Amino acid sequence: MGQSMSDLPSRLLLNLEPWRNAAHWRVAFSGGLDSTVLLHLLAHLAQSESLPRLSAVHIHHGLQAAADAWPQHCQSVCDALGVPLLIERVKVQPGASLERAARDARYAVFSSLTQANDVLLTGQHRDDQAETLLFRFMRGAGARGLAGMPKQRPVGQGTLIRPLLDVSRSELEAYAQAHQLVWIEDPSNQDRKFSRNYLRHQVMPLLTERWPQAQASMARSAAHLREAQGLLDELAQIDLADAATAHEFEWLGLPSLELAPLAALSVARQRNALSHWLEPLTRLPDTDHWSGWANLCDAAHDAAPIWRLADGELHRSAGRLWWLSGDWLRTPVIGCEWQSPSSALRLADNGRVMFSGQTPGGPLRVAYRQGGEVMHLGDRGHRDLKRLLNERSVPGFVRGRLPLLFRGDELLAVANLPGLDGSMQDGWKLHWLPTDEDQGLS
């Protein structure tokens, strides 16, 4: 091991040095070995060091009968250490992977609890990191996945820290025994049908028997891959800066990139840049599903290809890529009378419209394009709406939801399109806000 158990407190303190000025350290406390040792270490350090306010949170999933006794156990441990404990009960959504669903439920609570300048501390250690790497390796992960669990990442409005990632399980066990700590053994930790337990009990012992330093070596590999991923992220930012050009449809408020600069890159660089761009927007596609990107790029010039992803769609239109989700994927309801044009009109699944300047005389209604509409332009006579939209390179997905203002059968205005959006001589314009601000970035 090279490091004795007695220096565990000072190593932990060193790992937490950057967060000594946080408002609050909250330990995710399952009652198992790792979080029990972490909580004990911190409670004892707090007696001699000036640390942020310390508390613990126990998430009760209620997935197995044994778990019903755990909140009480956690409460007595915290009472003995003088640490306040919050017990949160969650409902786990049944689905394909119970492990994943339980984790999602846990992290939803962690996110909601963690305020700005709060730190959430979890007890994962070096053996967990090695198991994570092997597990992801078996699932064909890329550099990002094989970089393992990061020492820190954002959670809620604060930061999640894993301060024990450089400590082995055997060191934690030795500490727990030396201090006569009592912890919960989760029966499911022995169940070999869970991949992680299989790796922990069957595979790891064989590897470490042959290569005693296996876990430390794997942690080192993870660090190299994390550095490589950092370089890939920097490259993505360079490539995305070239594609994030200004355009005349900024008012749509949609994530958008110019296609030509991306298409000029090698395929691997395209994928790297796009993954980086899509990551905050959707769950990323697996390797097989990336063919959808090739189809999007290769489609004929006049085609309107769509790549459907887990949480939305990527459209190609007017020389750009557009990310559509939420209301943008719902077909707006045909239209409605505008009874009081002096105030904004809410449109089902399509934001709202309003006038600036004078309001034109009625009766007015707002509708959407059906095909065949004609508009009278003083200086140009009657023109097909389709042709007017083509002239302005309006993206295809916008055309069916651009609010059109009618008086009777006469098309008076097309919202937001300069020259078509109102009447110069009567001094009014029709404005469309495609999404309600209160939706934020949902």
UniProtKB/TrEMBL annotation:
SUPFAM superfamilies: Adenine nucleotide alpha hydrolases-like (SSF52402), MesJ substrate recognition domain-like (SSF82829), PheT/TilS domain (SSF56037). It catalyses: cytidine(34) in tRNA(Ile2) + L-lysine + ATP = lysidine(34) in tRNA(Ile2) + AMP + diphosphate + H(+). It is an enzyme of class 6 (ligase). Its EC number is 6.3.4.19. ATP binds at S30, G31, G32, L33, D34, S35. Residues 364-432 form the Lysidine-tRNA(Ile) synthetase C-terminal domain. It is found in: Cytoplasm. One of its GO terms (molecular function) is tRNA(Ile)-lysidine synthase activity. Keywords: ATP-binding, Cytoplasm, Ligase, Nucleotide-binding, tRNA processing. Coiled coil: none annotated. CDD domains: TilS_N. Belongs to the tRNA(Ile)-lysidine synthase family. Ligates lysine onto the cytidine present at position 34 of the AUA codon-specific tRNA(Ile) that contains the anticodon CAU, in an ATP-dependent manner. Cytidine is converted to lysidine, thus changing the amino acid specificity of the tRNA from methionine to isoleucine. PANTHER family: TRNA(ILE)-LYSIDINE SYNTHASE-RELATED. The N-terminal region contains the highly conserved SGGXDS motif, predicted to be a P-loop motif involved in ATP binding. This is tRNA(Ile)-lysidine synthase. It comes from Pseudomonas tensinigenes. The gene is tilS.
